[in-house]
Structure formats: C-alpha cells, structure tokens
C-alpha cells in the first residue's frame, strides 16, 4: 500500500513538474510574440507620424514674407534683393535682426523642443542647389545662434536635395530626397532625420527613416 502511495505521489510530482515547464514555455512565447507586435506597431507608428506630418509652408504669410510666432515672440523673414532679413520681436519690441546674403528662404518654424520655455526658431534657406539650416534659441532677451548638425555618414548617402523641415512631437525633422544609396532598401525616396534638442543646446540624431515617395 505504501509503495502504491509513493508511486502515485511520484507520478503526481512528475505531472506537476511537466505542467510547470509547459506553463513557463507558453509564457515566454507569449512575451516574445507581444514584443514583436509592439515593435511592428512602433514601426508603423513611426511611418504614420512621418506621413501624417509632411513638410508644410502653413506659416508663410505671402510670397515675400515668412512668419511664425511663439507666445508673444514673433519672428519673420523679409525677402529683399539678393538677401533675406530675419527679424524677431517680443511684445512688438524689436530684439534681434540678422541678414543672410544671396540666399532664398524656404521655411521658418518655431518650437520649444527641449521644454525650457525658451523658443527655438528654425530657418531653411536655399543657396543655388544647396540647402542650409539656421537655428536660434531665445535666451535672456536675445537670440543665440545654434549650430544645426550637417548631414554626414549614412544620412548623407544618396542625398538629392529638396529639403524641408517640420516639427514632430519633440523632434525637429529634416527631410530630403535621396537616390542610388547602396545601403538603402529603396532605390530612391524621401529620408527623414529626427533630431532632439537638449537644454544644453546639443543635438542628438534619434532615428532616420527611408520612405517611398507618395504617389499623388
């Protein structure tokens, strides 16, 4: 009788052990599947963010003046012969002015990406076939110029111009055309470089997306 009890106890213990192993395996598989789904959703969301926020000129007031505003700080670009003039005012009082020679303005944007309640201003200009980005941050009643990062390494492969800027959540995004990049899965398309801007006025390239051009 004792042997029978021991046998059934051993059998029950083996069944419990097998069941525990099976449960652990199933849980690990579910976690792996969940992680894959989250990654896929994140990838889709990143593409959707980029596609839903195409470069716009909605802050352009007319063909010769570009305008943007952050609270009571206004910034505008006036186009003159062979130059553009960048002007900033606070509560209608002029606080900054700078001229850029032999360039054409394409966009001006304002933001507070680093959340320090000091606005930044982003100016995209063209000079011949080249595009340049000038960045400024408001500090203590004046504007300080910030060096926007140049394209280099992987981001610069296949660069084909047609630059644009837009703000996406906490990023300033530089988009441009590319083609014949041997390291891209696409023969040509649009590349979007997402930069964050820190309170120490430094930039970090957080991600780069290669997207197909949307066929109209």
Descriptive account of the structure:
The chain is of the alpha+beta class and 216 residues long. Helices cover 24% and strands 45% of the residues. The strands form three sheets. The protein has a five-stranded antiparallel beta sheet with strand order 1-2-3-4-5, with no helix packed on it. It has a four-stranded antiparallel beta sheet with strand order 6-7-8-9, with no helix packed on it. A hairpin with a 2-residue loop joins β1 and β2 (65-70). The longest helix has 51 residues, at 2-52. The chain is elongated, with a radius of gyration of 27 Å. The N and C termini lie far apart (83 Å). The model is unreliable at 26-63 (pLDDT under 50).
Give me the secondary-structure topology.
Blueprint: H1 2-52, E1 60-62, E2 65-70, E3 73-80, E4 83-90, E5 93-101, E6 104-111, E7 120-127, E8 130-139, E9 142-146, E10 164-168, E11 171-179, E12 188-197, E13 203-211
Antiparallel strand pairs: 1-2, 2-3, 3-4, 4-5, 6-7, 7-8, 8-9, 10-11, 11-12, 12-13
């Amino acid at each position: 009788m004792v042997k029978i009890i021991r046998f059934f106890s051993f059998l029950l213990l083996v069944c419990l052990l097998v069941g525990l192993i099976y449960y652990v395996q199933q849980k690990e598989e579910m976690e792996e599947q969940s992680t894959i789904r989250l990654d896929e959703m994140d990838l889709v969301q990143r593409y959707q963010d980029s596609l839903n926020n195409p470069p716009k000129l909605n802050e352009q007031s007319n063909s010769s003046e570009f305008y943007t505003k952050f609270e009571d700080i206004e910034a505008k670009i006036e186009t003159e012969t062979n130059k553009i003039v960048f002007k900033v005012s606070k509560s209608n009082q002029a606080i900054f002015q700078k001229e850029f020679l032999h360039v054409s303005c394409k966009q001006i944007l304002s933001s507070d990406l680093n959340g320090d309640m000091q606005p930044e201003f982003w100016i995209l200009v063209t000079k011949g076939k080249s595009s340049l980005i000038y960045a400024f941050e408001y500090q203590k009643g004046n504007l300080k110029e910030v060096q926007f990062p140049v394209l280099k390494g992987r981001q610069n492969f296949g660069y084909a111009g047609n630059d644009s800027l837009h703000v996406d959540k906490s990023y300033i995004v530089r988009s441009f055309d590319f083609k014949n990049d041997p390291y891209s899965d696409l023969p040509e398309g649009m590349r979007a470089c997402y930069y964050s801007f820190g309170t120490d006025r430094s930039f970090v390239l957080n991600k780069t997306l290669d997207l197909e051009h949307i066929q109209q």
